[in-house]
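Forwarding the complex inputs:
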Amino acid sequence: MQLAVNIVVLSAIYALIACGYVLIYRVSRVLNLAHGELMMLGAYLLLTTASLFGGNPWMAIGAALVLSLVVGVLVYVLLMRKMTGEMVLAAVLTTVALGILLRGVMVLIWSAQQQYPGQALGFSNPALVLPGGARISLMAALLVGVTAATYLGLFIFLRFGRWGVRMRAAGQNPLLAAQRGINLHAIYALAWGLSTFTGSIAGMLMALDSGLTSSMMIIGLKAFPAALVGGLDSLVGALIGAAIIGASEVLSIQYIDPLLSDVIPFLVLIVMLVLRPWGLFGTREELDRV
Amino acid sequence: MRSSMILAAGLATALVTPALAQDAYVVGITAALTGPPASTYAPAIDALRIYIDRVNKAGGVNGKKINLVIQDDSAEPSKAAANAKKLLTQDNAVLMINASLSSTYAPVVAEARNAGVPLLFASSVCPKDVYPPAKEGQFCTTAFAATYDSRASLAFIKETAKEPVKIGFSAMAIPLSRGEIDFAESQAGPLGMTAVDKEIIPPPTADYTPFATKIKDAGANWVFSWAPWVTQVRTFEALRRLGWTGDYVTWAHLEAEGELKRIKDSKLYVVGANALFEDNLPVQKEIAAAVKEAGGKYPAEQMTEGWIAGMVIEAAIKGAGKDANAAKIQASMQNLKVDLKGLRGGPIEWTKDNHFRTKQFYRVYRWDGSKIALVKDWFAYDVK
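Prediction (whole assembly, two chains):
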């Protein structure tokens, strides 16, 4: 039972991070390699708001979430917008540069030491005992619930929301979408905002569960295979990909060798790239365009 | 007229700059101030900077100031190599400091050796070349010491355990941590302990619970972890969340004191070579006051490692005399004894053959329910 809980928790972490990669790629074909850093920035923003609104943790969390959304929009408006019309590779390299910049800035502002936003907010993180004797920390359970809610919210938004439909249209055919009066810059900014928002939620919950270090962004990179295995333009794919990567990682720790857990996600990715390069739920046309 | 003034100003600058440089001993530092392991190294360098600033304010050493030139290498060997080359050839450092991952050592050692400049490892793990018989030119002030730390920790477990010890091990998947835990595992049997599990955990890991699950399921009643703090503490906390009630022994990194206060678990023991600030020694009060005055980014309790490095650098340059150059500083370091005023169990003492220390002292602390308490006072191993 504990094994199943461990798989669900790790898969939820990867799924919550991976949906950020998908949101931006699906709309703008840009692979955001600064997603891990933006996720970590969200966690550091929570640390700051926790010290500002120490007496009101919910206000601190709300402020951090709003700030992370704004950061995502600003990244597009101030940086990625300039890449419009340029080669996709240029935009991807810009995100690499952004990641390096963010890493340095975050250490300068918040230092390199381990931080605990949960402590600053006055949250405790007790273990919950599940049927079967398995245990899960409160924050990990919350992360699983938030991941489910986030995916559900995104499905509803993209399927039924006016801006969601516009996002899908912009992703499928930007020229036609623009001719129909859709403001592409607004759509792209929204995608960056939502991607940073969901990534930040992942960063915040991980930081609340086990603390925050300046190496958190590497976890963002470990979630990348989940998005690729599922198909970079599919949210369902990201969810399934995260489950596959999470399960293979936990099972390798349990039954093979803990060291393999670092390699397994990329082994799965290589197998997927050989067998089905566009991922489980990705569309072949998208890959051809890349 | 105007061009003459510019020329004069240029000449004046050219004349004054070397004079200023000659008035200071240049100490070059390549350190992991950013990057994944920065939390171990950045506080030490901050402390060193604060210490040297104080020395300079008090008139310097031998009437000259010490000019610290600090370069970030992000724990990347290529950057460390470029830093070392720049510090040695452009800044003309008379002493090099490495405060970074062991993967950066080879290029920095090579550059320092070629330039004939002594190299001090401060807060980074001591390489085997500083232990007897030491290689020329490499020295180390860092508290932790491979194999000695495991011996001390296992000896503590053996004398503390009231029932047969079934021990689990936890390491980070980096060569140094793995090597030490492999060594500890090999020592467990001869000490009458049963090694039940060993987890080598990749850095960083999103969730430590799968690793902790294995340790718990293996039936460990003691766990020893020797790794960067993040791996040590997250494995412990994951174990506790799984309902594990055993005893956990781990290395007292810079973060240990603050973390003992945060976690408040009486079965979490930290074994270390530095005195914790709970001791409230005069020198610790001095450090706390200096950090406060300098507006340091890190808590005073994380400053010990860098402070000790500062004391040693000051003593080494002082011992080399007014005209200290790289060769004289190296000679001074080969015959050096620095009283650490209680920050450790004994002095830093270097000889021609031993650039580590002649005795390695340890203490064990834990949370006793209301404060950090000393569980075992200084005990030592001869370094041969």
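Chain A has a mean pLDDT of 91.
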